[in-house]
Amino acid sequence: MQTESQAKNELSPTDTATDKKSHSKHSIKSSRFRVQSIARQNDVSAQIDEDHDKTLQERSESRQQNIQKRQQQNLERIFRLCYDNCLDETAGEPDPDWIHHFMTIAQNIYSPSMQKLWSRILRQEIITPGSISLKAMIAFQQMTQRDAQLFRRACLLACHFGQDNTKKLLTGLKYRSGFLLKQASIDKLNLGHYQLPYSHLLELMGLGLILSTELESGKLQSSTPLPFHYQGNDYQIQPAKNGVSLLYYRFSPVGQEIAQLLGNHRNEEYQIHLTELLNKHFIVSSDASTYHPII
């Protein structure tokens, strides 16, 4: 006998489209419905649902008990996620005050995706005590799920160069052109093309994750190769001509700490455009050989 799930999988495209449209129609709720639903979930619907039979004191106690239960569930979930991602690494003893602050904050993290990030914070601190500052935890606490997504986009585009390991967002290259090379020209990288417009940068600056001033490196000399790193790949870039400089935004110390938790993940399209830009002004090489492009 054909099961219900098998029958659903065999629906024609028209039936599937109709079903989706019907589902979409029924999933649209009014603002009154949403308010009532949220109020019920948080035990504050007494004046909306007038058929209740509890006193104000009883309702208050019930709400507090439910909050405590959810907080307990949040902490248990975060510790379980951390436990599942720990292996046999050598671990240290986190500071008791750090653990106290962590649990005070983490108990109010309800989003599953944010709970995963908080489990990474805990894992990092257990493996390397002192690596996650209280300031970074507070900044992370203030981040919504959307903020975390914006910051992750920035991390996908981050590089670092020279002897400085701080993550940076490269925005372009400045070079000399024109008569006697006296006129400065700029080749820009359009970060907005990679879902990171300037308005989003401003939000990350407001969160204290990226410093607000666009910086310029010193003028690079053609005789001196510069170490350049993008998402775990190491290169040397050597200017084809003297006087080229890099334009960039720097991650803040707190942004750097949080970025380390996310690991190295590249944006393939950005890497192609970054390569094209670098190859216009530099000889790009790896340890093995000189080549174009760096992918």
UniProtKB/TrEMBL annotation:
<dbReference type="InterPro" id="IPR021254">
    <property type="entry name" value="DUF2806"/>
</dbReference>
<dbReference type="Pfam" id="PF10987">
    <property type="entry name" value="DUF2806"/>
</dbReference>
<feature type="compositionally biased region" description="Basic residues">
    <location>
        <begin position="22"/>
        <end position="32"/>
    </location>
</feature>
<feature type="compositionally biased region" description="Polar residues">
    <location>
        <begin position="1"/>
        <end position="16"/>
    </location>
</feature>
<protein>
    <recommendedName>
        <fullName>TIGR03899 family protein</fullName>
    </recommendedName>
</protein>
<feature type="region of interest" description="Disordered">
    <location>
        <begin position="1"/>
        <end position="70"/>
    </location>
</feature>
<feature type="compositionally biased region" description="Basic and acidic residues">
    <location>
        <begin position="49"/>
        <end position="62"/>
    </location>
</feature>
